[in-house]
Design brief:
5 helices; globular
């Protein structure tokens, strides 16, 4: 299967919707794998993050058929930056002992998203 923006946007939207639902209704599933205890303040931040994930999901789903453009490039760059920051923060929390190795799964997924969107972004440049 050749990776293109449409496929990646749909897969990303599904991932973001799953994250939104998990953080909204079952944050302990993620937190327990990271070795982080669910408290009301942590849940509050998680529920607010769920709204952001839902928004990302909507953006990518609605943009799935977007032709190469400045707007599509902005989506790609935005998810690349977000993924790099999240991966760096996750690695930092693991190294400093604030999170257990379960967080490395999230870090790997974040890096995979960055690489996938980089491939899609580079493919556009080589095709023009």
């Amino acid at each position: 299967m050749k990776l293109n923006f449409r496929t990646l946007a749909i897969l990303s939207a599904l991932l973001f919707f799953a994250l939104a639902l998990t953080w909204m209704f079952a944050p302990d599933l993620v937190l327990s794998s990271w070795g982080v205890e669910l408290s009301y303040p942590v849940g509050l931040v998680g529920r607010r993050a769920a709204a952001l994930y839902a928004g990302f999901g909507v953006m990518f789903f609605l943009a799935r058929n977007a032709e190469p453009s400045a707007a599509r490039s902005a989506l790609i760059r935005g998810v690349q930056l977000t993924g790099l920051i999240l991966a760096a923060l996750g690695a930092f929390e693991f190294v400093t002992g604030h999170a257990e190795r379960g967080i490395l799964v999230a870090v790997l997924i974040e890096i995979a998203l960055v690489l996938a969107f980089s491939c899609v972004g580079c493919a556009r440049k080589t095709n023009h």
